Write the structure tokens for this entry.
Amino acid sequence: MTETRTTCPYCGVGCGVRAGVAGDGQVTIRGDADHPASYGRLCSKGSALGETLAMDDRLLGPVVDGRPASWTTALDLVARRFAATIEAHGPDSVAFYVSGQLLTEDYYVANKLMKGFIGSGNIDTNSRLCMASSVAGHRRAFGADTVPGSYRDLETADLVVLVGSNLAWCHPVLYQRLIAAKAARPEMKLVVIDPRRTVTAEGAEMFLAVAPNTDVALFNGLLTFLSDTGHIDDAFVTDHTEGATAALAAARLSVGEVAAATGLSAEDVAAFYRLWAGTGKVVTVYSQGVNQSGQGTDKVNAITNCHLFTGRIGREGMGPFSVTGQPNAMGGREVGGLANQLAAHMDFSDADRDRVARFWNAPALARFPGLKAVDLMRAVGDGRVKAIWIMGTNPVVSMPDADGVRAALKACPFVVVSDVTARTDTAALAHVLLPAAAWGEKDGTVTNSERRISRQRAFLPLPGVAKPDWLIVTEVARRLGFGDAFPYRSPADIFREHAALSAFENEGSRDFDLSGVAGISDAEFEDLAPVQWPVRSEAERAPDAQDRRFFADGRFFTPDRRGRFIATPFAAPAPAQMTLNTGRIRDQWHTMTRTAKTPRLMAHFAEPFAEIAPADARRLGITPASLVKVESPFGSAVIRALVTDRQRPGSVFVPMHWTSETAPSARVDAVVAPVTDPVSGQPASKFTPVELSAVAPAWYGFAVCRDEPAFPEILYAARARAKGGWRLELAGEEAPADWVGFARETLGLGPDVEVLSYLDTTAGRFRLAAFSGDRLVAAFFAAREPVEVSRGWAVERLAEPATTAAHRLRLLAGRSGEAGADPGATVCSCFDVGVNTILAAITSGAATDVASVGKLLKAGTNCGSCRAEIGRLCDGHRVEKAG
Ligand code: SF4
């Protein structure tokens, strides 16, 4: 077996991966113990990477207007249509919409083509949806988009405050590093601030369930408290910053006023303030809960104000810390993937434009920032943008007002999509589909949340005639007549140019500086070890030169090198009876094009759900496991109800992953309003006023089958891969007249299968089991209420080599007939351990805590992503017993 060191393609933690390929092509994945972001750890998603590499839905060749085409035909057409559109309507009539999934080298070339040579700023990235408010907040406070600290700061801090961050699920390995550090130093404190009691809150000393969109009040109140109690670093503020007085004046809120604004008790607010003020080594970590807001940039600055005020920045265990959602959101920011930035952290000032134009020898460098994602899609919709190239992202699912985005792309005269699969909602609208390299085939670099650049290395051959994104863009650039500026033969060529631009006329004036790697050879690029920027000299490439921090010396990147306090007056959110909050779940990634390929990741949550507080459920007549409708003026979604006291009344949480491919009624971004932060342009995806109502289907259904099921045109359908086949959840407004015919068509049962069925019209129950010889091919259960059949048990029947007569009867009855046979929903994906199995161990007294559950069942002993959930089950049992 040969092993390649590469990087996980999912979240912004950027864990190191060792990918082994055996002689028979089998891929094994393990953590890279030498990688300084993860030290050998991988979460459930990273561990399952080897199971997501199947070729079944890969796009293997270009497609033009639905028909296979050669690269020459496809690329000639792309260049011709873009050139003709620019000729007729000017450079701003075309656009690129790119992705934090691209490697830095892909991103660099796309940005150079659009901003440097086409001459428009119209390239924006899906990182706009997750990071733009942090970028804007950094630029306002520091004069540059600088993350000051390192992951190690989360381990060495005495207090870590997580704001709007479900770190346990969304950045699991960083969370595990934090929890391990806390276990080693029990005096270390963790505070979680979130409207929802996520699993991350389980390990915290203090959980503050703030009302949505009131974080600015909480941190303004903290600034006031720090001032009133004398917790100020006078020397730092006086010598190195501007604007403290104005920021403090705008922030003035008493503890009581903060309590009233946030819905917290005054005692909790005061306790948090005392803890923050009294602890020198504080790291405040924030993520999408802060960024995805109409006040996202102000939230970031309200946090940075507190750190500047106390001088707690840039020193070990101190500082504000934004964690990025995507694997290469940071790389995209470095090369100007955002429409309002130029490459190498430069902006559209005259000096920066001139510098970049000279470096690139670019004749027509864009004069103005381009359109940000939401505005860009509006411009596509109203015809200002007439040709768009979408690379590695699925905006028809992931953008707010997703139905509006779908309509805009449908009406767009020319849509090009580069992707690894044609099975996305966006690819379905493309005039030209270009097959791109997938993870495992790509070669280049990514940058994680702590500014660490790591290599992604190819360990698999390119399938079909797929090409890396940088090469596809380069070939179009050459066809557009810009060959001299796009001479690249390899990612190493691009990386060297990117690094050289970062060093060009820098002299310490810009944070992003890779001069120490600008001259590396191809071989050195191949072997490049993970390195944290800035890399200002060859010496700084050495591993012991890691963990550099910014701003401890008080020198920022503003024109006068002083940091900036920003006035962030709090404006209470407009009252709404119910608001929608969207986000991620532990085992899925974005629109599931990869993670939905593996049954074990689908076993955690096999269908979309809406988390609703019990009080709201009672008020609206919503029962557990029934269906709910979430509706806004932009669209609606029908989703399974999950009634839980983790949710606060007045809020509903829905994951953003499900698509037309997996649950057509549950594309929740169709409901999300296209409201953006006025500074960053980031959509407020965590706060859409909505109507929530109970749905009363005539019937609910559940099925398992060997082959991929079809989606009938009914109220609700969600399909997921399962061991040995598929599982399907259904609900309809009208019972089918012919149940057997309906089941046959949905489950694709041919005439040669043997079908047993049972229909009780009075009780409204239907069951069907289909066999090919001795083997179960499909089972279908329908009832007037949510079907109670054990999902795990039914799925396991698919894997059985043969069914006996007794088994057949049990299948029709929908009951295992065996004690303890229902493991329940999967908690531990690595060892396939279900919630019922864990609960049985806890209630019997065989296990009492996470460690003993692990010892007994192995659950939580591999990647560790489920440890927080196991802890919650143990705690819940303890509380129940005490009660
Ligand atoms: Fe990948 Fe998980 Fe690491 Fe994120 S935490 S980079 S998803 S292994």
